[in-house]
């Protein structure tokens, strides 16, 4: 079991799990090849080995603060167990990283939709946020496919009204998946789109409503404030909406993704993360760093463009553990 083997494919067929493994191959191969070289010829996990491991974690975009946490946890285990060999390092490293991620994991939220009875009274509302180009709309399409395939009624809201391409792309995804998309077209009020999408979800007894929002530049406070407006308008229909704010980040951008995450968590109540494009980077450690530092669970990872190219994170609800 490697550094990212705790992520699982949407439907765990052998072929699909292989696709996820291949998508993460750059990160796994790069990291563990370097780790093997760093410990070659050494028998014990000493200070020099830990220094090399620290360097590898930083280079993998895990981040300084999270790297320090991981090293400290390993140091405690080495001190406690006394005779830890370099052959044990892979297993110990994996266990400590899983422990960090698991501490921020939760079975509630978008992954728990599959545990909900059909039409429990009002739909579960997910507001998806993130800057342009990170794969927001594609992630929404994958989620819609995931829930629709599980027999859930899904409604999409095209509230990214500043880009015609974003509206059109979501409509195409809706057609591909077979779910309705509420759209007012380009240059319309995104809050009004969100309101109508939630209202439609209530009327048709939907299980989940997913709202796309415009690609906010994380340094534009006025645009960030619009997210609050969208939330207030949705709450006129469902008082506790949105039930999840899913921040989508591009894993290939490394520490820039972490900076975006920091700004978004200041601007809105981000409750979960989706990290995309991990098939295009050898530095997938950003997944670990962002989750650990912001204490927000990583719900999903994206490793391709197909509808099924969606891996899920730790601690799934019971219905997903048995899938």
TrEMBL record:
<dbReference type="InterPro" id="IPR004390">
    <property type="entry name" value="SR_rcpt_FtsY"/>
</dbReference>
<dbReference type="GO" id="GO:0005737">
    <property type="term" value="C:cytoplasm"/>
</dbReference>
<dbReference type="GO" id="GO:0005886">
    <property type="term" value="C:plasma membrane"/>
</dbReference>
<feature type="binding site">
    <location>
        <begin position="212"/>
        <end position="216"/>
    </location>
    <ligand>
        <name>GTP</name>
    </ligand>
</feature>
<feature type="domain" description="SRP54-type proteins GTP-binding">
    <location>
        <begin position="297"/>
        <end position="310"/>
    </location>
</feature>
<feature type="binding site">
    <location>
        <begin position="276"/>
        <end position="279"/>
    </location>
    <ligand>
        <name>GTP</name>
    </ligand>
</feature>
<dbReference type="Pfam" id="PF00448">
    <property type="entry name" value="SRP54"/>
</dbReference>
<protein>
    <recommendedName>
        <fullName>Signal recognition particle receptor FtsY</fullName>
        <ecNumber>3.6.5.4</ecNumber>
    </recommendedName>
</protein>
<dbReference type="GO" id="GO:0005047">
    <property type="term" value="F:signal recognition particle binding"/>
</dbReference>
<dbReference type="InterPro" id="IPR000897">
    <property type="entry name" value="SRP54_GTPase_dom"/>
</dbReference>
<dbReference type="GO" id="GO:0005525">
    <property type="term" value="F:GTP binding"/>
</dbReference>
<dbReference type="InterPro" id="IPR027417">
    <property type="entry name" value="P-loop_NTPase"/>
</dbReference>
<keyword id="KW-0472">Membrane</keyword>
<keyword id="KW-1003">Cell membrane</keyword>
<comment type="function">
    <text>Involved in targeting and insertion of nascent membrane proteins into the cytoplasmic membrane. Acts as a receptor for the complex formed by the signal recognition particle (SRP) and the ribosome-nascent chain (RNC).</text>
</comment>
<dbReference type="GO" id="GO:0006614">
    <property type="term" value="P:SRP-dependent cotranslational protein targeting to membrane"/>
</dbReference>
<keyword id="KW-0547">Nucleotide-binding</keyword>
<dbReference type="GO" id="GO:0003924">
    <property type="term" value="F:GTPase activity"/>
</dbReference>
<dbReference type="InterPro" id="IPR042101">
    <property type="entry name" value="SRP54_N_sf"/>
</dbReference>
<keyword id="KW-0378">Hydrolase</keyword>
<keyword id="KW-0675">Receptor</keyword>
<dbReference type="InterPro" id="IPR003593">
    <property type="entry name" value="AAA+_ATPase"/>
</dbReference>
<comment type="subunit">
    <text>Part of the signal recognition particle protein translocation system, which is composed of SRP and FtsY.</text>
</comment>
<dbReference type="Pfam" id="PF02881">
    <property type="entry name" value="SRP54_N"/>
</dbReference>
<dbReference type="InterPro" id="IPR013822">
    <property type="entry name" value="Signal_recog_particl_SRP54_hlx"/>
</dbReference>
<feature type="binding site">
    <location>
        <begin position="130"/>
        <end position="137"/>
    </location>
    <ligand>
        <name>GTP</name>
    </ligand>
</feature>
<dbReference type="InterPro" id="IPR036225">
    <property type="entry name" value="SRP/SRP_N"/>
</dbReference>
<keyword id="KW-0963">Cytoplasm</keyword>
<comment type="similarity">
    <text>Belongs to the GTP-binding SRP family. FtsY subfamily.</text>
</comment>
<keyword id="KW-0342">GTP-binding</keyword>
